[in-house]
Amino acid sequence: MRALVFFFVWAFGLEKPLIAVAQDSIPPDFVELKKRIPDVILDIRYASTRNFTEAQIYDCPRCLLRPEVAEALAKAQIALKKQGYKLKIFDCYRPRAYQQRLWDKVPNPNYVTPPAKGSHHSRGAAVDLTLVDASNKELDMGTPYDYFGVKAHTDYTQLPKNVLENRKLLKNTLESVGFKGIRTEWWHFSYRKKTYPLSGYLWPCPED
Q: Are 160 and 154 a contacting pair, CB within 8 Å?
């Protein structure tokens, strides 16, 4: 028997009421990225302890995004493959319940968006990612993912030439399909061509 999963529509600033509906599949306003881009590399860090909190935040790893966001990444993947590279994804949609878990671990707005405000991840419109080569080896970006220091800032230039070029390739490719990065994290990009509401949909995990 499948676990019961609740789909919450969080209506912050809207007139719609909070709705809870039992879900047995992904709702139509989300897409499983692996189905849209079969050869994308997934390494969902918050579904493990291999993240800056050293705690498992997600019950199981999945990468869901809004359809337009997934489509934009598909275009980026096509462009990158022509140059011998592919996308590797660290984080996608983050349900509000998991945003709360993250905040409970690190209640610091400098590093984690407060759940009441909601991040672009909780809207299904943001990704954390990097690039890999034809052998699926990560390109050198100067720091690991989730490194919170000045070397991870996109305006930090005291880095080897190849690192700066790798970051530029990631940035230019994502911006060309509608994403925008942030200054403090070279890996974070949000889709800017459309706005989305916060969501509490919690994806189901495979049965044990």
A: no
| Spatial CB neighbours of 177, under 8 Å, sequence gap ≥ 6 | 72, 73, 75, 76, 79
The tens digit of pLDDT for each residue in 11-69 reads 333 333 333 333 348 999 999 999 999 999 999 999 999 999 999 999 999 999 999 99
pLDDT per residue over 142-186, tens digit each? 999 999 999 999 999 999 999 999 999 999 999 999 999 999 999
Residue 207 neighbours by CB distance under 10 Å: 7
Strand 86-91 relative to strand 41-42, pairing: parallel
Contact 14, 2 (CB under 8 A): no
Active-site residue, 185 included: yes
Q: Which of 15, 68, 185, 207 is catalytic?
A: 185
> Which residues, in sequence order, are bridge partners of residue 191?
179
Please report which confidence band the pLDDT of residue 116 belongs to, taking 50, 70 and 90 as the band edges. Answer: confident
Phi and psi, residue 149, nearest 5°:
-160, 170
Taken in order of first residue, the domains within the chain and their CATH numbers are: 32-191 (3.30.1380.10)
